[in-house]
Hints:
This protein has helices at residues 21-37, 39-50, 61-69, 73-91, 130-143, 162-170, 181-190, 207-216, 241-252, 267-282, 287-297, 306-316, 329-332, 349-354, 390-406, 410-420, and strands at residues 3-5, 98-101, 107-114, 117-121, 147-151, 175-177, 200-202, 221-222, 230-235, 259-264, 299-302, 320-324, 340-343, 380-387. The protein has 424 residues and is an alpha/beta fold.
Amino acid sequence: MIKVIQDANVTIARTIFDNREEEYKSVQSILKDVKENGDAALYRYTQTFDRVDLQQLTVTTEEIEKAYANVSEDFLEAIKKAILNIRQFHEKQRRQSWMDTSETGTILGQLIRPLARVGIYVPGGRAAYPSSVLMNAIPAQVAGVQEIVMTTPPDQFGNINAGVLVAADLLGIKQIVKVGGAQAVGALAYGTETVKKVDKITGPGNIFVALAKKEVFGLVDIDMVAGPSEIVVLADEKANPIYVAADLLSQAEHDPMSAAILITDSTTLAEKVQLELDNQLKVLPKREIAEQSIEENGAIYIVPNLEAGIHMINDYAPEHLELIVEDPFSYVGKIKNAGAIFLGENSTEAIGDYFAGPNHVLPTGGTAKFSSPLNVDDFIKKTSLISYSNEDLKQNAEAIQTLAQFEQLQGHANAIKVRNTGNK
């Protein structure tokens, strides 16, 4: 049974990765092993954790061909449409290099260049996610990244999910490595005989993947340290309880640690949603996972008015936020912190996960207060250009020297002085 809380001043509870010293020590040990022993460590950990003895680490052409034979035409059509939508959305985020020339001859600018090589991690534990391939690879490709390597754990027979392989092949990903967990992150960060070191690692994973990404950050870049998934639904009395319950469960089925929250000013709606959750759970294939999520991390908050609910939302900064209210666009300007906002009863979170176009790799754990969904900017680097004219150097030399001397950096001041005095 989901908790019902009637208190406008309460703070929404959040599931976090804490007290993880044992997992962190394990991750550090695995990363050290991969760094020192390369492919040998990857084979060993795949046998230990995935219970399969691989003959080779990378997916073959024959496996790709077999994957196409194991997916339906409907799947192929659907994923091709999703690729088109996601690519079109991310194309609008593309940046261009620029230069600005002043009347005095100084040129200032910024070079926009893609990262050279990126590694994407695709989960394969409780379920396989072709959509994760699309959401991680497409913005990198739009940015201009030339080399993308994908890692994903194999099943007990050494196979990768057919849908995941087809998604990767449709995007032209050439190297697919059958490795998961912290060991995959280590391979991408340090490089092995088979896996070339990357510049950035993106993609969701379990606690071991998250901690491994956190550990290698600095040696390589990462997208984020993702925590448990979250959905908050803000709904008024006119909301359809069947839709609300279905959307809460769509997130709860991900993981027992997922959070599914309803905020409403209607006691009647809260009661109806409770009944609908029970009804829909009975026929949900992943009932056990969703039920645990709802009971341990779910809640219905009854507030005196929706303004109070918005205050709670901005404090919580949810990964996914649905506004199932009358005139949802009137609330958008009041929402300060959310990874993605879904407007109206037709805009279920599931559309964003698969098809609409915006990225489904979103900030969790309250990080939407200061970070953004995965996007094209995550796969570029910016370099400043400065070509200072002689006229501007002479005109501004005294000001620059003043600032340098204030910071007691006489070498900086002297670098200006020797130029301004005409020494060559």
